[in-house]
Write a structure and sequence with these properties.
Layout: E1 6-10, H1 15-25, E2 30-35, H2 38-48, E3 53-57, H3 63-76, E4 83-86, H4 101-129, E5 134-138, H5 151-170, E6 177-183, E7 185-186, H6 203-209, E8 214-215, H7 217-229, E9 234-237, H8 239-250, H9 252-261
Parallel strand pairs: 1-2, 1-4, 2-3, 4-5, 5-6, 6-9, 7-8
Helix pairs in contact: 1-2, 1-7, 3-4, 4-5, 8-9
């Protein structure tokens, strides 16, 4: 088994995944990238340095493809995977009544099934490098308190939070850490997307109009490093996430009022 530590990151072709890849490779880790965006992964590889990364195109919704991706990365990394970052995810906004069946199913499949399948496929690899290996899931501030105008997305991120807590209990006997990140709005290409098929308004426009802070991806990458090496189950990233977590715990009535006052669905 290689002495060099290795991390496999889904959604590695852009945004948070790319930032995590750059951060870990900069500290000597071998990085595996998984994404459906081959061009994006190539760009990420150009940023990680020669010989520091491996890319594998696959869809996180495909359970068999997960095994193929991790087996291939393990071979490329010299037989070890220390961290699997379940980071791939998509946004979905708009009122539930206007979300199409296709949009709902796609969001559920990528954000929830993809995380569950990734956890299943990761277990035998993380057992080999335990104790101290880690499954790192990307949840969201939307997993702290439900976000009006993003009910499906909120449901998936509450789900990721629940998966993290459940597997933290299940996998303790193996010495595998299970952690998640709960970022607010991060400055990634996802903010340029419309929240749903019926909208032409970029998510960034709505976030800025609401006066919410947008956090740089580097902050998430640093939080990922701390989560992998620390003992905190949920890691909040950015002022929005920290304020929401504080309010949900200590001032739930106020958070409820704010949620109602700001509940114009994304894209309306």
């Amino acid at each position: 088994m290689s002495e060099r530590k290795a991390i496999f990151i889904t959604g590695g072709g852009s945004g948070i995944g790319r930032a995590i890849a750059e951060y870990f490779s900069g500290r000597g880790w071998f990085v595996g990238l998984g994404d459906i965006d081959a061009a994006g992964m190539k760009e990420t590889q150009a940023r990680t340095g020669t010989g520091m990364s491996y890319a594998h195109k696959f869809d996180v919704r495909d359970r068999t493809a997960w095994d193929e991706a991790l087996d291939a990365f393990s071979k490329a990394s010299g037989g070890r995977i220390d961290v699997v970052a379940n980071n791939a995810g998509i946004p979905l906004g708009g009122s539930l009544s206007e979300n199409s069946v296709e949009e709902i199913e796609r969001c559920l499949d990528i954000n929830l099934k993809g995380v569950l399948f990734g956890a299943q496929a990761s277990l035998p690899h993380l057992k080999k490098t335990a104790p101290g290996s880690c499954l790192l899931n990307t949840a969201s501030a939307a997993g702290i308190y439900g976000t009006g105008g993003a009910s499906v997305y909120s449901a998936t991120k509450f789900g990721v939070r629940g998966i993290t807590e459940a597997l933290d209990a299940e996998w303790a006997e193996f010495g595998i850490k299970v952690r998640d990140l709960m970022p607010g709005f991060i400055d990634t290409p996802l903010l340029e997307h419309a929240p749903n098929q019926g909208s032409n308004e970029a998510i960034r426009t709505r976030v800025q109009a609401a006066g919410l802070e947008i956090t740089p991806p580097l902050a998430v990458a640093q939080a990922a490093w701390d989560a992998v090496h620390g003992d905190k189950l949920h890691t909040l990233v950015g002022k929005t996430a920290r304020r929401l977590a504080f309010g949900a715990r200590w001032m739930p009535g106020k958070v409820r009022q704010q949620a109602r006052s700001q509940s114009r669905p994304l894209g309306q």
